[in-house]
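Ticket #395: bound-state structure for pyridoxal-5'-phosphate.
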Amino acid sequence: MQVAQRLQRIPPYPFREIAMLKAKMIEEGTEPIDLGIGDPDMPTPDFIIEALCQAAHDPDTHPYDESGFGIPEYKQAIADFVQHRFGIDIDPDGEVQSCIGSKEALAHIVWAYIDPGDIVLVPDPAYSVYKVQTSWCGGAAFPMPLLAENDFLPDFDAIPKGVAKAAKMMFLNYPNNPTGAVAPPEFLQEAVKFAHDNELLIVNDAAYVEISFDGYRAHSILEVEGAKDVAIEMHSLSKTFNMTGWRVGWAMGGRQYVEALSKTKSNVDSGTFMAIQRAAIAGLQRYDQWVDTVRSQYQERRDALVEGLNSLGWKLQKPKATFYVWVPIPPNYETSGDFATVLLRDAQVLAIPGSVYGAYGEGFVRMSLTIKGPDKLGQIRQAIDSIRQNVKLEW
Ligand SMILES: Cc1ncc(COP(=O)(O)O)c(C=O)c1O
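RESOLUTION: The complex was predicted; output attached.
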């Protein structure tokens, strides 16, 4: 049986070769240092686990969550949290939607708005979901290159006027995966103005908004005046609270956008387990006591990785946010795939070729600060030593 054309349209997994090489190395007894996967390696904090256990023992949490948008206490906790964190007013009744992680919301907002032929402005490089879902809905993804010379921010003036006018949706993601870039408030203001001028919906992916360093705090696009008219923003507890497997997050923004997302979701899923929503409340309420624990761990690793790479000849700035380091390939390698293959084969260091994230990701590899196994800093230092000894770097 042939799978649907929409599934056939998705290109083969570009990371396959590296994954196969890794599997072969493990089979032959070498465990590479895996800087590939971006998945928190520390446990969910106890206070969230305890809240879950307690909630799971309450039979009231066991049926479907018939509220549709999420239980009132969770929506209220979100409204309180975003007021405290970003200084923004969100009406828990209609401007918030509980989500099964942010990936689900990012996918379903496309289904809510995009018809065949619609144009969606998508950053390149980017998290693959934006483009894949656009394609599944028959839409056309128009790439917005994220270039080093523009601090990995899209240049709205470079988008042809006709394309901007015709576009229905635009994805943004800051702090950014894979580049680690952040967006200054002026950029967010410019984006909201661009959306007003061109009557399009901004979908702002804020999955990494809490993972930031050196005192830097990332912004919500909803801090910009008038943003609710043109924006919906997706948040996640995955990275902030080491909860990727729990699948919990939220969408917030303009009432009509939240309503459209909610209608889509109600025809696909049946919401987040209510006990998990209660556990999420415990997380949001203890945010201030918790968040520096997670930030300081990644900051220490970031420093070790960036300083180590710079000792090998790179001239990297330390990223202000996310748990990724976006590393230009040395000039003696032609493609990011070539360099990633050499890193893995000769130095046993797994990094992801930037081309996986789009054509404009070519020329870079992404190294993640999430590392399985004990002694994370030790593994980073080992990776640097191994690159020094085994990989030819010409500058
Ligand atoms: C940019 C970006 N957005 C969203 C997500 C989805 O995260 P979750 O569905 O766990 O909230 C990820 C996951 O890696 C991501 O990298």
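RESOLUTION NOTES: The domain at 5-43+291-390 is CATH 3.90.1150.10 (Aspartate Aminotransferase, domain 1).
TICKET STATUS: resolved
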